[in-house]
Design goal:
The chain is α+β, with helices and mostly antiparallel strands and 570 residues long. Helix content is 49%, strand content 18%.
Length: 570
């Protein structure tokens, strides 16, 4: 926040109003800034700027409501829309963003440096290391600070909300120098522990301002009146100026003195510039040259880095596009953002058809149930899977089995929520199915070959069983006692059961049965094998076993049963 004249009058109109018709009511800000504006002992506004505004208001039939407060508070009130106008104010680019400025200014003024009598201040360079006081938000202070930076002059700044506090700081020795507007400094601080110095700067014409976009007609009307009064040498403008500003009596019109002083200001500034400009230019030239060399080196390095990045990006994209495995990626919204050439070859869908296509998932998984299953499983796995088999439906309608793997959780890529690679295993799966069928046919062929080889042995066993049955049938017929008949019936029944068991095993061996494997007990296997032998097996044969169960190492119960039952024993 800047300020033109410390202690100057603050004026405003009602917030948001944009009118200049008769009977307008204006809210006008006011604070003690003699001789421009003040409240007298009776609380009545007075001063040069107050009288000018009241005269214009009486001619336009405006009603003025004076609002008394400090400069910072009134400035904030204008920004908040609680005041309608504020003047005088120096035009700056920053202020033009917030305010509309009048064309006419109230008067010509300038900034001046005031110092304690013990301080020898003749140029801006003498401010080095000093404690400088200023009114908070004063525009002239900010202008002086910018000039000091250009001359590489550093000083300590202390700001105060009012002239009274600034004067007190000077009298107490807290500060050594003060920067003020010329008229305010002459009326308020000169003789209060400060004196004028030759350091003057920034001749300026302050303007009346309104909040941007409001009260344009009021500003136009004020411009008309100020132009008319300043062009009339007998107007109240010059009478009020002589009464309140109180310039020295020199027989020269009051408007000439500021003009001459402005020329003097320029001369003083020219002298100050002449003492420091050459050094400043040499230093800045050297700095600019060094800075230019540094910038050229930075630009060269940046170009090399950019070229390397572009080349790396090109190689990276070339690898992804042409790698012999499928690579695709999706973003956080579930849309495909990568689809390489192998994906195009396997599925038949181009990258233009898949990338950023909200229907892409439906193209690859047209079955709703299967699509929902895949999407649910993908969320559960959270980008962590290996050799996960999925079925894509290609563009030609064929089904492609893809083995997918993803490590995107370990190697995240910006813009890719999940990514992975895939291998088309459709042909491999078909080959595995064909191989399984051939192996099954081979096993069946081997069974038939084994059955033919043991046919003679089976016939011999059946002949022995039939012989036993026939023998015991004759014994039943010729039995003399019931005991003999029962014994022969039992023996014949046992032979019949053995024949039935052998027949069942042969049928099982000849069929295409499940090739699953399970553990078997070797003693139990031997015991069941013995039960298949003819009743007239060698009497010297005995068996005993303490073996543990056979581990599942390729034993098929049906094949073993058949083998033990169909073996030829001599």
């Amino acid at each position: 926040m800047l300020r033109w004249l410390p202690g100057f009058l603050l004026l405003g109109l009602l917030a948001g109003s944009s009118f200049a018709q008769q009977g307008a009511r204006l809210r006008v800000g006011l604070h003690d800034a003699r001789p421009l504006a003040y409240l007298d002992e009776q609380g009545t506004p007075g001063g040069f700027a107050v009288l000018i505004l009241e005269y214009i208001a009486s001619q336009e039939d405006w009603e003025i409501e004076w609002v008394y407060d400090s400069w910072p508070e009134l400035y904030d009130d204008l920004l908040d829309g609680e005041l309608d106008l504020l003047f005088p104010m120096i035009r700056t680019p920053e202020r033009e963003e917030h305010f509309d400025f009048s064309s006419q200014g109230l008067l010509l003024s300038w900034g001046r440096v005031f110092a304690r009598p013990t301080e020898d201040i003749t140029t801006i360079l003498d401010l080095q290391g000093k404690k400088v006081a200023a009114i908070r938000g004063d525009g002239f202070h900010e202008i002086l600070l910018e000039l000091a930076e250009n001359f590489e002059v550093e000083y300590e700044v202390r700001t105060y909300p009012s002239l009274e506090e600034l004067v007190a700081a000077v009298q107490q020795g807290v500060v050594e120098v003060a920067v003020l507007e010329e008229i305010a400094g002459h009326w308020h601080v000169e003789g209060e522990g400060l004196r004028r110095t030759p350091v003057v700067f920034q001749p300026s014409t302050p303007h009346i301002v309104a909040l941007r976009g409001t009260n344009a007609s009021i500003l136009e009307k004020l411009d008309e009146w100020l132009d008319r009064l300043k062009n009339d040498r007998g107007s109240i403008y010059y009478r009020f100026y002589a009464e309140h500003i109180r310039t020295e009596e020199s027989g020269v019109p009051p408007w000439v003195q500021p003009t001459l002083l402005g020329g003097g200001v320029l001369l003083v500034l020219a002298f100050a510039f002449n003492t420091a400009l050459r050094r400043q230019v040499r230093r800045r030239t050297r700095e600019l040259r060094d800075r230019n060399d540094e910038l050229e080196q930075q630009i060269a390095r940046r170009r090399r880095v950019e070229d390397q990045l572009r080349e790396s990006d090109k190689r990276w994209r070339t690898v992804i596009e042409n790698m012999p495995v499928m690579l695709n990626a999706i973003d956080r919204s579930g849309l495909f953002v990568a689809w390489n050439k192998e994906c195009e070859r396997v599925t038949g869908y181009s990258a233009e058809e898949i990338i950023k296509n909200p229907k892409a998932t439906e193209l690859l998984y047209p079955d709703p149930e299967y699509r929902e299953q895949i999407l649910t499983e993908t969320k559960v796995r959270r980008g962590r899977y290996k050799n996960w088999e999925r079925n894509y439906v290609a563009k030609d309608g064929s089904t492609k089995t893809i083995s997918r793997s993803s490590i995107s959780h370990r190697f995240p890529i910006p813009g890719w929520a999940s990514w992975g690679i895939g291998i088309d295993i459709t042909e491999r799966k078909a080959e595995e199915e064909r191989r399984a069928k051939l192996e099954d046919q081979l096993r069946q062929s081997q069974k038939m070959e084994a059955l033919g080889q043991i046919a003679s042995g089976i016939a011999h066993d059946f002949k022995n069983l039939l012989t036993v049955i026939a023998l015991h049938t004759d014994q039943i017929r010729n039995a003399e006692t019931p005991e003999e008949r029962e014994e022969s019936l039992a023996a014949a029944g046992n032979a019949i059961r053995q024949a039935s068991t052998m027949t069942h095993s042969l049928l099982a061996f000849g069929r295409k049965l499940d090739s699953s494997k399970e553990p078997l007990s070797l003693p139990e296997l031997v015991e069941k094998g013995c039960a298949c032998w003819p009743a007239r097996s060698p009497p010297t044969f005995t068996s005993s076993s303490s073996a543990t169960p056979i581990p599942p190492s390729g034993c098929m119960p049906t094949a073993i049963n058949c083998t033990r039952c169909c073996s030829t024993w001599s």
